[in-house]
C-alpha cells in the first residue's frame, strides 16, 4: 500500500483532488448546481466536433482490434447522441435537489435537538464499460447530488471519455466552479483499476456499471464499499389462476422488447395445472419472435421440439434470445425455485388470485416484485425517479432503481446548550 | 473458491441453513418474534449455571494465556450479567417492529401501483471480540428485525458464546421456531474467519464489532458488503466566541467519562483568539483527571509542561488517558483540520455564535455533529433508538448509531393489471 510508484502517485494525486473538491461540492447550492449543468450541456453541443474526432480515434482502434459491429455501435457517437447527452444534463436540472432535506427531527428529554439531514455520499467512484454517454450521465447525477465523481471508463472509449471530461471540466473551471468535481482516470492499465478499487481513504462508494464480469471484479477486489448493480436473472411465474392471454402478453414483452437488458425475463415458472394450456401459447409466441426455449422434462412432455434445460440454465442471465422454462406443483415450489435461482433483481407473477399475489409479493426476495405486469418496468425513469445511476441488486443502502436520492447519505445535526452525559 | 475441504464444507453447511431459515424469518409476524424473545430471555436466566460453567472454562484458559485483568473483566460473566442479557432481550420486545412498513407509495400514469416496503436485510454476519454479552444482544436485534444471524465471536469467549447460543437455539427449537435463525461458527481458526468474510452467496451484510484491527481486517478481506463501525477520533472545537466554562465542562465529559469508547474526545482544536484564556483552564481540568496532554507549538507556548504532538497524534484514536491539542487561526482552519484528521464519527463545536455553529454543522463531514454538547451522546440509546447494533462511520446504508431500522432494507411491490412496457 505504501509503495510510492508512479501509479500510486497518480491515483493519490487524484484522490487528494477529489477530497478537496468534496468540501466545496458539499455546500454548493441548488441554483449553482443547475447553472453549472446548463453550461455543461451547452458546452457539449458547442464542442461536438472535438468529441466526435476523439470518438473517431476510438472507433479506428476498435475496428483494428476486430470489435464486433454491435459493440462498435455502443461506442459510436453522433451529433444526435451528443445532443441527447446534453439534453440529459438539462433534464437533471429539473429534478429536485436530494441534499439538505431534514429526514426526521426530534428532541430528547435532556433538551438535545436532533436532526437527520440528507448529505452527499462524498466521492463516488464509477467504473463502466464502453458507452461514452455514461460519462455525461454519471457526471450529471453525481454533480446534482453534491458528489465528486472519479470515473474509470472502458479502454475502448478512453479518447471519447477523455474528450467529454475535458469539455465538462473546462466549463466548470471557466465559470468559477470546482473542476475537480469531475475526475477521470486516464489509464488503460488493469493494475490501476485494481488499485483504484482500494482507495478507501479518498473514495466513499464504488458503483460498477457493466456486465457480470466487471461487477464480480469490483465485488472481489474492492475494499471501498460497492453498490452491486445490474445482473438480472428475472422470472415470470404463471399461476394456476392466470389469465393466459395476459401471461403471453407479459412474457412476450418481458423477454423480447429488449434482449440485452438486466430487467428482461430469462426464465419462466409455470404452475402444472395451467401448463397444458398456457405453455403451447407461450412457446408459439416466443418462437415466432425468434426465441430459443429450453425446458425441463415436464415442459418437454408438452412441447417436444425444445432443448432440455440444465440446472445451469436456471442460473443463467442469457441477455440473449434464449429462455428457460420449468413446471412446478405449487406456488410454494415456484417461490422456492425463484429465490434459489434468481439474482434478486425483478420477478413477476401472473395471477387472478389475490392471496397468491400477496404471498408472491411478500415471499419472493427480489428488489422489485410484480403482480400482473412486465419485469421491464424496473427502471428509474419508469418508476418516476427522473434518472437512474443503476439498479442495485444488493440489500445494503439502496435496492432496485437508484436515482438522485440514492446518491445521498445523511448526517445527524445535534444542537445543545451545554449538555454532558451522566 | 471451489475447493471442498473440511472448512469450506462446514461454512457451506452453515450458509445453506442460514438461507433456509431466512425464508421463514422474512415472514414471521411481530407477535411471534416477541414471544420467542421472551422465551429466550427466560431460558438464559434458567440456564445461567451452564453458561457460567462454560464461561469459567474460558476464564481458566484466558488466565493460563496471561490475559490482562481488564480484558478478563470483559470476558467474565456473572448471574447479574446474565440477567442483564435477559433483560436486554425483553427490552427489544417493546421496540417497534421495523419490518413491513410502507415507506412510500405512488401510482404511475400507466396505472402501476408502486409501494416501497421495509424488509429484513436477510442474513447478517457479525464478527466480534471477547464480550459474550454481544451474543445475546446481537441475536435480539437481528431476530426482532426478521434477520438470520451468523455469529463469529472471539476465540477467548468461544465456550461462553457457544453455551449462550446453545440455550437460545434450543429454546427456539422447543417452541416451534426456526433454530437456524441463530447460527454460530464454532471455530478459532483464522482461515475460517477469512473464508466467512467471503460468503457472498449466503450472507447479505457483515458487521464487524470490535477494535480497529478487526474492522480493518473486515474491510480489507470481506467480499460481503461491510458496515464499518466504531473507530472514533472525535474532536471538540472551541470557537473564539465560546463560553469557556461550558467548553471545560463538555471537554471534561467527552474525554474522561469513559476512556475506551468510540465517542470519547481524542483531540481538541482551539481558536487562537480564545486560546490564552481557555487552554490553561482545560489543561488544569484534564490534568487533574489524569489525562496526558500533547500539543502543537502554539499550545506549548501557553502551557509549557506538555509533550509535543506529532502529526500522527492528530490521526490517533488513543482510547486511553491521552488527548492532543492544536490551535487554529479561524473556523475554516478548524473545519479543514477536523475533516482531514477525523474518522468521521462525532465532532463538537463550543460557540455562542450561531453562524459559526451552522457552518460547523454543515461543513464538518461526520456522522454526528454537535453544537454545545458532548460527543459522548452518539449512541443508539441516547438518541432514543432503544437499542444499538453499532455506530456506522461509513456513508453507505446507515451513518451514526444503528438501531433496528438500520437492520432492514426495502423492496418494491408493484401491482398491475397486465401492463407491458411500450
Could you describe the 3D structure shown?
The structure is a homodimer of 422-residue chains. Chain A starts with 5 loop residues before the first helix and ends with a strand. The first copy, chain A, folds into 2 domains: 6-228 and 401-414, Aldehyde Dehydrogenase, Chain A, domain 1 (3-Layer(aba) Sandwich), CATH 3.40.605; 234-377, Aldehyde Dehydrogenase, Chain A, domain 2 (3-Layer(aba) Sandwich), CATH 3.40.309.10. In chain A, α2 (30-46) packs across α7 and α5 runs parallel beside α6. Chain A has 422 residues and is of the alpha/beta class. The first copy, chain A, is built from 15 helices and 16 strands. Chain A has a 7-stranded parallel β-sheet. The longest helix of chain A is centred in the first third of the chain and has 20 residues, at 6-25. At the A-B interface, α10, α15, β13 and β16 of A face α10, α15, β13 and β16 of B. β13 of chain A pairs parallel with β16 of chain B.
Topology of this protein?
The structure is a homodimer of 422-residue chains.
Chain A: H1 6-25, H2 30-46, H3 48-64, H4 69-75, H5 79-93, E1 102-107, E2 113-120, E3 123-128, H6 133-144, E4 148-152, H7 158-174, E5 182-184, H8 190-196, E6 205-209, H9 212-221, E7 234-238, H10 244-256, E8 265-271, H11 272-288, E9 292-295, H12 297-302, E10 307-308, H13 311-315, E11 322-328, H14 331-341, E12 346-350, H15 354-363, E13 368-373, E14 390-392, E15 400-402, E16 408-419
Helix pairs in contact in A: 2-5, 2-7, 3-7, 5-6, 10-11
